[in-house]
User: Which sequence fits this backbone?
């Protein structure tokens, strides 16, 4: 028989550079020993794979193949059997497997290179260079500077003085035909405008949502603030006016405040009467422009004056409508901001424009003592005697004007107002949810029969109240020389800004709670076993000490 390989053939070229077939050996003895026919192959380890140690009976060139694709696993899983052990079969199997894993690695690498990166700033636009955060910030700053330059040019072009008028008001306010207010304004007027655009705007918005008398009241408040803004702008561009001229300039603000208070008096039966009262009691804070040398505390006093009614608004509407709570907060914040504004810009009073040294009298050499010896030998100049005047008395609230008396029932309210010298006022047939409101009475006595909800005495003088029992409380506000007597039971007695209050308790009211603030001359009459009363004064003087844990306040007993 002819030998298997008689003619020497040139070596075959392989597409895989990792395999090298060595055919330099002598192949004439292939018939005698088949083992000598095995062609040695020098494998090249595929990229990313670590060669495993060579095992016995392992196929050359497959040392880098993972175990999960080994020949043994193929046979166990029912795959095709390995071709016959021949040099050609082994070479083809090794080439196919190596080519397969090479293509697999190339595909994996290509997928990795084409992976999409997520950019939080959005997709990039072709042909446009992506800016860094620092470059974007510089661009924004440049645009902002350009806008600022345009605004400055606009303000400069409108620098001519003009007369201001409030567009929301039906009547234009002119201070004087010869005066004009600059449109720009100084730091003071700008800070006041911040109050108008801030908490006051919130108050106006909430008032319009509530509607009714509250919205109409808020419109007058807005006009009052706009009028004061014009007054502040006027003060920035002129000197202090005379007393008569100043009264004329303040007349628009005074008329606005008067209109606000009159609207409250016309709507005493409104369900929003407490809202109107809170504004009417505190709106005189705009009169700080006439207070010197400390106008800021005056605003605080006016804010406290309306606190009684704001507390009643919170009490009545807190569980019903949150808008009323926000309304109270907005108004209180407006007055608080106004107080801070005055404290910062007008600490000792309204600041008018300065005139420098133009108004000073020039002192010549003959008027100077060290240059004119005759002035030293002559009589001393006249000096006016220093007058020590009495200290300024605290402002006392004027008594209520002589208005027609009122004694009527409006739903759940009993209104007793402007009574003079009437000692026989009696409320009968009242129900447990009724409220008695006594206002502006002088030298009068009111008797309430039956058990009702609460009683309020506001701005009464030398008046008395006698009642059986109450569900809630009896309150005294801005009263002078008043008395009360309970025949049954009362849970709470509240006294605020009252001078002179005599309280007569019954045996059933010994557990009463008395809350007082800014009041004086308060006495409690406690019944004795013999029917007489024992008098106990409510403390008015306190001593406060500072300790490591804070402040400690105790009552100071009078030993005189």
Assistant:
């Amino acid at each position: 028989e002819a030998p298997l390989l008689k003619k020497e053939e040139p070596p075959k070229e392989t597409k895989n550079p990792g395999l090298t077939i060595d055919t330099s050996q002598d192949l004439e003895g292939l018939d005698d020993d088949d083992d000598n026919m095995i062609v040695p192959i020098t494998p090249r380890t595929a990229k990313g794979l670590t060669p495993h140690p060579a095992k016995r009976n392992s196929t050359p060139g497959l040392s880098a193949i993972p175990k999960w694709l080994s020949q043994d696993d193929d046979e166990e899983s029912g795959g095709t059997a390995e071709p016959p052990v021949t040099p050609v079969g082994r070479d083809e199997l090794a080439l196919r497997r190596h080519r397969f894993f090479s293509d697999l690695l190339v595909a994996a690498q290509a997928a990795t290179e084409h992976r999409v990166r997520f950019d939080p700033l959005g997709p990039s636009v072709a042909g446009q260079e992506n800016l860094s955060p620092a470059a974007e910030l510089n661009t924004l700053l440049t645009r902002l500077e350009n806008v600022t330059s345009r605004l400055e040019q606009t303000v400069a072009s409108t620098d001519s003085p003009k007369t201001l008028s409030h567009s929301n008001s039906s009547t234009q306010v002119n201070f004087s035909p010869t005066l004009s207010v600059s449109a720009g304004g100084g730091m003071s007027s700008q800070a006041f405008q911040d109050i108008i655009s801030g908490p006051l705007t919130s108050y106006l918005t909430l008032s319009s949502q509530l509607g009714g008398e509250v919205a109409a009241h808020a419109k007058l408040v807005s006009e009052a603030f706009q009028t004061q803004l014009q007054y502040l702008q006027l003060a920035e561009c002129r000197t202090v006016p005379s007393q008569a001229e100043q009264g004329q300039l303040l007349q628009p603000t005074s008329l606005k405040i008067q209109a606000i208070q009159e609207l409250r008096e016309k709507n005493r039966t409104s369900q929003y009467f407490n809202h109107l009262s809170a504004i009417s009691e505190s709106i005189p804070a705009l009169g700080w422009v006439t207070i010197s040398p400390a106008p800021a505390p005056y605003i605080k006093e006016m804010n406290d004056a309306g606190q009684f009614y704001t507390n009643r608004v919170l009490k009545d509407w807190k569980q019903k409508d949150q808008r009323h709570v926000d309304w109270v907060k907005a108004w209180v914040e407006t007055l608080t901001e106004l107080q801070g504004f005055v404290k910062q810009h007008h600490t000792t009073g309204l600041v008018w424009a300065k005139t420098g040294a133009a108004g000073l009298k020039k002192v010549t050499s003959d008027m100077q003592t060290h240059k004119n010896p005759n002035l030293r030998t002559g009589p001393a100049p006249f000096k006016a005697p220093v007058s020590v005047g009495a200290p300024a008395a605290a402002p006392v609230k004027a008594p209520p004007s002589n208005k027609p008396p009122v004694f009527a029932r409006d739903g759940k309210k009993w209104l007793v107002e402007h009574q003079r010298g009437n000692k026989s006022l009696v409320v009968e047939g009242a129900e447990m949810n009724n409220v008695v409101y006594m206002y502006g009475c002088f030298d009068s006595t009111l008797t309430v029969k039956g058990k009702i909800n609460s009683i309020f005495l506001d701005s009464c003088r030398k008046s008395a109240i006698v009642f059986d029992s109450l569900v809630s409380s009896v309150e005294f506000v801005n009263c002078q020389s008043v008395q009360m007597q309970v025949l049954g039971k009362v849970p709470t007695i509240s006294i605020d800004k009252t001078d002179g209050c005599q309280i007569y308790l019954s045996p059933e009211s010994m557990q009463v709670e008395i809350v007082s603030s800014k009041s004086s001359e308060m006495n409690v009459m406690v019944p004795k076993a013999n029917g007489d009363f024992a008098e106990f004064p409510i403390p008015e003087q306190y001593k406060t000490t500072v300790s490591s844990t804070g402040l400690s306040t105790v009552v100071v007993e009078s030993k005189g």
